[in-house]
Model the fold of this input.
Amino acid sequence: MTRSGPDFVQSLQRGLAVIRAFDADHPELTLSEVAVATGVTRAAARRFLLTLAELGYVRSDGRRFSLTARVLELGYAYLSSLSLPEVAEPHLEALVAEVHESSSMSVLDGTDIVYVARVPVSRIMTVAISVGTRFPAYATSMGRVLLAGLPDEALAGLEIKPLTSRTVDSVAALRAELARVRAQGWALVNQELEEGLRAVAAPVRDHTGAVVAAVNVSAHATRTLDSMRRDLLPPLLTATSKIEADLAAASPGLRR
Done:
């Protein structure tokens, strides 16, 4: 995306793009691969990589580059400023102890959800989830709760890609689902993010009534949808209500 504002620093944008070029599928990259992934010249990519290496964010064996653990400081600066996970975690732990299924909290970042707290009981996804994990909001129960708290125009330009055979297949279908979520106050997603995974989520609102986070309970698809509504949803709604009460008590100084 092209930016033209007088205060926009393009070199910073490109430097961050270099960091984002590395991911789980590409933990190591050559100079040429970084240049292609970020759309900059080899000379520019080299300058960014060497600068990041001097700052301690990147290492190199002479040919291939990879991120160092110091990159975690960039995300931790945000996560450590949050009060939401601190408030929510005891309630997530109590919820998990009651229902014996994993529970997580996430916030919305653009069109993705980002996990800010998680209490697992077992691994039921092929992708390991931890604080900082991102998923497309449209295919997740927490994402739909968070998207439902936004105006419809927030979905303009959203690109939907099928993650399973059950994934919602259009923005129109997503809008209809979000209307249902708004009306009932919770979301249930059946194997749209990953086959074999079902999840139910509810919103967490601040003292103004704005949706600031979502909490879910996830389960293997051997647990029926009726069972999730009957056995998991009521304890989930109780947990989010308690989180909201604690948030209200902490307002107005709560950091999000």
Summary: The longest strand covers residues 211-220. The chain is about 40% helix and 20% strand. Residues 252-256 have pLDDT under 50 and may be disordered. The domain at 81-250 is CATH 3.30.450.40 (Beta-Lactamase).
